[in-house]
Design goal:
46% of the residues lie in helices and 27% in strands. By secondary structure, the chain is α+β, with helices and mostly antiparallel strands. It folds into 2 domains: 2-141, Jelly Rolls, CATH 2.60.120; 145-206, Orthogonal Bundle (Arc Repressor Mutant, subunit A), CATH 1.10.10. Strand 7 and strand 8 (203-206) form a beta hairpin. It is elongated, with a radius of gyration of 18 Å.
């Protein structure tokens, strides 16, 4: 797993990587597991070694919206910020694809910043990437129709998984888009009629773009 992290676009220092493994704890999770819930205390920072996590914003009425994905070699910038300022989590992190996650205690985050300049660079690069992704979300909600957002989400999932076939329910898609299941079902049927995809039982197969 060290090689996976070392080859990622964010971590390039073997010394830093060794320090992460020496000070962190690695755990294994399955699809659907919640590794961080809203309002939970942040005592460690998750770094994905294998698999993928999705970060979701939830509201009191149960509505949700997908913010971004965390892939191998990446971490959750909101956990960094919340942990360093002793604040509770404002998001939920759920395993999208079976994952191995290294948890770095919050107190080590500040220490690494002083001892390893590349660690601060790692944080800033993550922050930049997440900021751009959140701007895309705001732009999509403000200016794009739900059918376009739905299709873009499916293409993103397909790219992440490396497969044209996506195992997912209409309810799950609705939650990630922050809309109603009936809306997603209707739009998926329209996209199928337009030849963009083919619907199956809890799965969707995208057509060639």
């Amino acid at each position: 797993m060290k090689d996976n992290l070392l080859q990622s676009e964010f971590i390039s220092s073997p010394e830093l990587l060794d320090k992460l493994h020496q000070n962190g704890i690695t755990k294994t999770y399955h699809e659907g597991d919640i590794i961080l819930d809203k309002n939970a205390s942040i005592r460690s920072i998750p770094i994905v070694m294998k698999g993928m996590i999705k970060v979701i914003r939830t509201e009191e009425d149960g509505r949700e919206i997908l913010l971004y994905y965390i892939k191998a070699g990446e971490s959750c910038i909101m956990s960094f910020l919340g942990g360093m300022h002793n604040e509770k989590s404002v998001v939920k992190a759920e395993v999208e694809e079976d994952a191995e996650i290294l948890f770095l205690p919050v107190d080590k985050v500040s220490l690494f910043i002083k001892e390893h300049p590349e660690w601060l660079d790692y944080i800033f690069r993550l922050y930049h990437k997440r900021f751009e992704e959140l701007l895309d979300i705001i732009n999509a909600i403000a200016f794009k129709k739900v059918d376009e957002r739905l299709l873009n989400l499916l293409y993103k999932k397909s790219s992440n998984l490396g497969s044209k076939t996506i195992i997912i329910t209409h309810e799950q898609l609705a939650n990630e888009l922050g809309t109603a299941r009936v809306v997603v079902s209707r739009l998926l049927k329209q996209l199928e009629d337009a030849g963009k995809l083919k619907l199956g039982r809890n799965k969707i197969k995208l057509s060639e773009q």
